[in-house]
Amino acid sequence: MATDVVVPALGESITEATLGQWLRHPGDAVKADEPIASLETDKVALEVNAPVDGVIGELVVSEGATVEVGAVIARIAAGGEAATNATPAVENRTAVGKAEAARPPEPVTPIAPAAPAEADEGSAAQTLSPSVRRAVLEYGVDPSRIKGTGKDGRLTKDDVLLAAKTGAAEARAPQQSAAAAPTPVAAPAASGDGRKEERVRMSRLRQTVAKRLKEAQNTAAMLTTFNDVDMTEVIAARTKYKELFEKKHGVRLGFMGFFVKAACMALKDVPSVNASIEGDEMVYRDYADISVAVSAPNGLVVPVIRDAQALSVAAIEKTIGDFGRRAKDGTLKMEEMKGGTFTISNGGVFGSLMSTPIINPPQSAVLGLHRIEERPVVRGGQIVARPMMYLALSYDHRLIDGREAVTFLVALKNAIEDPTRLLIDL
Fold this sequence. Notes:
By secondary structure, the protein is α+β, with helices and mostly antiparallel strands.
């Protein structure tokens, strides 16, 4: 008796998704609640779990197909049933009424798993996401020798980059069988002069991000104002208390906790930065739901810290840390990505010196943080070296005047340069 695997509820107002990748293939044994496929929606990637123990019998849709909530995407045979009748033939039965449904079904090509390390031959084969496979091929590392930090020990792109940087996972010898080598997402096309191109289909999430950012440029009267901030006092406070902070709260003390807290205070002083335009009305809020950009295997995602103005620095750091871990695992929920009133994006972790961030509609402003580097500044008539960071505030000039944008940045700068202000609400 086969059990249908269906697309789960995806969240309010979301009725369809794209099947990004099959994590298990016909003939594979699975256990209940084990991930067997990944879905991509307009906002986030998520996994579909096996409803029962058994063997994958049939994949009903192919990777890249559009699937609706409740649609059958696979069938699982009972554990004792033979899997010989299972075929990878795929029928796209879920896009009824769509143009895709008129095309003949495409076969699913199973992805060859990476060969396990010799010291651990009995371990299960790894399933690599497209971005991880590309990184493995690009840097020539052996994925079986890398310890994964993702969900269920799965490899992430960051794991591969770290291994490549440290030389901890050199590629196997050439005699490794071709079947065990990771397969690229799309075969590069070589031209006569040896140059290559690779075409990779944009994910649904990336398409949505592109659409929303272009919409922001076309709709908002966007302008960016800059300032810089001396990070001396925050660095000193972090250095002095980081061990005690981690011991008491179980989380590391980072810079984002200070900036989120300082931003909440500045938003209170300049409420238009936390407002939005809806039709011909301006909506002002007495709360701050801060969207923070965190890195995920498929790119940046922007979960929301609810009522950040009421949270301590410790609570903010715990929330951001939890977002980061679950973004890496792909377990962030749809509702956690909605409803932010102001965004903070930290390009400094990637080495950015300066940028002009784009507003995340329907918000009216976004704060860009950048890398900290020592620069010469004048203090008390003397030229001294200080750890400085550039701040960038992009805002919708229809709602926020230049004076208000500068006032916001100055308030933020003052709070960071004198963290005592965060304690006494100045």
